[in-house]
Design goal:
5 helices, 157 residues, 0% strand, mainly alpha, DNA polymerase, domain 1
Length: 157
């Protein structure tokens, strides 16, 4: 009697939490851990031509391995519930976003480096101009003093 009761309870729980792979929507398939938008679409495409008798039939679909089949059998769900297929980001989208962020950071660093180089170059130019201007002033002063000394010598003679 107890064995029958346990068997009924196990069967009830397994059917309550299990997803029917032949009728599940894209969103329901995506709620399974490891199945994103593309895999859900490939399951739907596969079941149009094949009847899925068990989760093991998913091995025939490219990109679905033992880990995902195990998740389907155990009913392992994603941590965050999926509301819409378009709202769920696949791993490739996330990696593309992180690459974009990384490239943005790199381009920002490169731009900062270029700006720093420009500033240092302009400082070097301005300091060179200042030095050359100072030299001109010194040479003008020395030329004036030389003229004065020549005039002084002429006056004395």
């Amino acid at each position: 009697m107890i064995k029958k009761l346990l068997l009924v309870l196990v069967f009830t729980f397994s059917t309550l939490f299990a997803i029917n792979l032949n009728t599940a929507s894209k969103e329901e398939l995506m709620s399974i851990k490891g199945i994103g938008e593309k895999r859900a679409e490939s399951i739907i495409k596969y079941r149009k031509t094949h009847r899925i008798k068990s989760a093991d039939d998913l091995k025939n679909i490219k990109g679905i391995g033992d880990d995902i089949i195990g998740n389907v059998k155990k009913g392992v769900k994603n941590k965050a519930p999926v509301k819409k297929a378009s709202a769920n980001k696949s791993k490739s989208t996330k990696s593309k976003e992180s690459k974009t962020k990384t490239s943005t950071k790199k381009s920002k660093k490169t731009a900062d480096k270029k700006e720093t180089q420009k500033k240092s170059a302009s400082r070097a130019k301005s300091s060179a101009k200042t030095k050359s201007a100072k030299k001109r002033k010194v040479s003008k002063k020395s030329a004036k003093s030389a003229k004065k000394s020549k005039k002084a010598k002429k006056v004395k003679h």
